[in-house]
Amino acid sequence: MARTPADPNKTDLIRQYLARRPNATALEAVRGIKREMGIDVSVGLVAKVKRDASAAPAVSSNGTTKADQIREVAKSLPKPVRPRDVVATLAEQGVKASSAQVSQVLKGMGLKRRRRAGRRAGPRSVVVETVASTLTLDSLLAAKKLAVHLGSVEAAKTAVDALAKLG
Q: What is the pLDDT of residue 53?
């Protein structure tokens, strides 16, 4: 026999039973539905309906979810929107929201904070690469002779720096 649109399906019957007895276990619900309605349902189906019902977002008395309330407050605040400002505004309205939850909703809205890029390597690294690629064994030996002749590596560096200022 075909089910008419007015006839509830098994899932709807399970939801109705669980709405009357929210603390019933899956096995208790199976036995209660069989006793009260004369319909056989599996324990697995009842467990799935219970699990799905508990995963549904919490809706407040005015019919909106907490995420919707966070979005409304974020749109009403001046930019840049900070999570602590949203949390404070919601607290004034009597809604408790964590900063982490607000941050996630703001991120989903595209209002996440952008971090500045770190400092990039400047010409210094390029110079080091250039010098390193032009150094040969002969030039290193000549630099060593210069350091020995001047008495120390620091004295050789001073002389090279002075030469660079002249040129």
A: 79
> What's the rounded Cα separation, in Å, for the pair 78 and 88?
14
pLDDT tens profile 92-127: 988 888 999 999 999 988 876 666 666 666 555 555
Same domain, 39 and 15: yes
Tell me the residue range of the domain where 30 lies.
10-54
The answer on 70 and 36 residing in a single domain is: no
- β-partners of residue 65 are 59
Inter-residue long-range contacts of 111-115, CB under 8 Å, 24+ positions, other chains counted: 111/74, 111/79, 111/80, 111/81, 113/80
pTM (predicted TM-score)? 0.40
Burial of 163 (0-12, 13-18, 19+ CB in 10 A): exposed
